[in-house]
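The aim of this short unit is practical: by the end, you should be able to scan a pair of folded records and say something sensible about each. We start with the first protein, listed as its amino acid sequence and then its structure tokens.
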Amino acid sequence: MSAGSTTQRRKVLLVAHPRRQEAQDVAAEVVERLHAAGIDVVVQRDEATAVKLVQHPGVTLVDDADTAAEGCELVCVLGGDGTILRGAEVSRGTGAPLLGVNLGHVGFLAEAEREDIDATVEHIVAKTYSVEERMTLEVSAYVNGDPVYTSWALNEVTVEKANRERMLEVVAEIDGRPLTTWGCDGVVVATPTGSTAYAFSAGGPVVWPDVEAVLLVPISAHALFARPMVLGPSSHLALEVVPDTLGTGALWCDGRRAVDLPPGARIEVVRSQTPVRLARLTTSPFTDRLVAKFDLSIHGWRGEARREGAVRGGQAPSTA
């Protein structure tokens, strides 16, 4: 190293659930360990106040959420899927991968659980994690041909009725051609990542995250043709709220960002060119995640790995 040169310190952005006591405790633990390893921890000022980290010597405070992840090698999120989606908002487009530690319920987007926090910090310090990219969606809303809203989603874009007592009438269009009209509670447009979220609850299929596709799932549609559909990743999807419909609608992105939709509004959804990068600590297959997160019964399984394990252990494999 030449004279006068400096080594840039490593930085990790920490995002924690602001109202969960466990998040406060875990956040303090993570900051202590990363600080001891010579890694600066960046926290948004209002969030640092909520989790009581404002005075911690290992914390660098930032005020602008849009630039909080710039220069950080990783975004570490402590919370459930909602908090992880908030972390995705600040990490997307910065190059910093997102690593979620589940402090919620299902935590499908999380890579680790609370009891794994020691090993998780070790992975961060040693940089022993891989990174995978998840496709996202770009959405634009128009009223009378004029753009009124643009956003993006990691899980799903939904068009929903705004009034509980009234149905929403929506025309679906794919690649410039009309498909069908639904009288419904709404429509979900989801990524493979979001296939286990709202789209799953609406009756959509589970899609493996390495599949490039867009899901179209009507919600409680009054129609004979109301099955979920899996579209190609380059499909251009549009949803129009019928002008003479009885109800008004709302557009939601990941259940976090919303805008009202008047009758006649048009919503266009395409695949985004900016993915969300997720840090992975293991190479376990997606099947294992499904089994663990949905607590699926695998009673009676007689897989090859189980048979081989029994033989290596000196036992004959069961044929029952």
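Turning to the second protein, read its sequence before its tokens, just as you did above.
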Amino acid sequence: KMKLLLLLLLLAACWPVQDAQSDCLCGVRAVSSYNNMMRIVGGSDAQPGSWPWIVSIQVPWKRGSGHICGGSLISHQWVLTAAHCFINASNPEMWRIMAGTVRLLQPDPGAQVINIKRVLIHEYYSNLTQRNDIALLELQQPVQCGKYVQMACLPDTSLQVPGLSPCYVGGWGATQEGCEFPTILQEAAVNLIDIRTCNSSQWYRGAISSTNVCAGYQQGGIDSCQGDSGGPLVCKDRTGDYYWLVGITSWGKGCGRAQQPGVYTSTQHYYQWILVQMGLLQASQTTAPPYVATSFHKPKPTYSNRPGSCPFPRNKLSEFFTLLQEMLQVIKESEA
């Protein structure tokens, strides 16, 4: 009986706690749908849940789906995207995001459409050089996490991005240069390319800054394209089964051209800027939490640990060991 009781206590301690936001995970895919033959330029469809943090940013009065750019959920009420999506934008506070779907014209069941509350563009963004091409969208109401809606993992500067693999891009952008946008999410695997190679004389000739990431292929053929702007470049963690949001689709010469890969804003270089804009860090502070949490509770934010080998809440483990200590004391007294 005592062994059975101990086992029940252990199960109770390790059973995940369910609360309003416990179903939110960081960088975890519900479905793995990648096909080695597919291309984002040229088109192959992603399956529902394959990239649950990606959102479509839409202009309601634009024809079709209204899709303008992509973005990534980094908390229940914030989307990370590219600044250039909002240059000369007309009333962006009247725009909206669509989450939890790969289809835009006939959204998947459970798709969420939420209006934008405000747009925060990096104060030093340059439309000429595309430096600091990053922006945040605060939503009017929080998204609800589920199988098809999750958060992206946002790294700080301690993450060693070079060498991460596999990496992927996704979006509803054009499948060929100058073509119309598809209505089903496209995805593709890409390789990270060293900045020195990207800046070489036969590539981008020094146009890439230290706050950029290059990704694609030397021979071209697979790339992000117009309409994918603001969407995610993600790479799998070296040890865990989850993905880091390492880049924001920013710019490139054409789509899928040889030695002209996609150029992405490096998210880890703007980690503290992001936290300051979200009100999670004072501008005067020089240190920040090790990564953005999977959930934020207002008015006081809470931070959860990075996904690892022990996903159970610390308070439940503490409760278990307290109960175990009490039980051992009871056993000791009964044997005396």
